[in-house]
Amino acid sequence: MKFLNEHFEACFIVPLMFLMSIIIFIQVVMRYVFHSSLTWSEELARYLFVWLVYFSVAYTAKRQAHIRIDAAINLYPKALRPWIEILSEIIVLIFSIFIAYTSITVFQKISASGQISPALHIPMQFVYAAPLVGFVLTAIRQVQCIMQKFREMHASKEVDET
Question: For the chain, how many structural domains are there in total?
Answer without folding.
Answer: 1
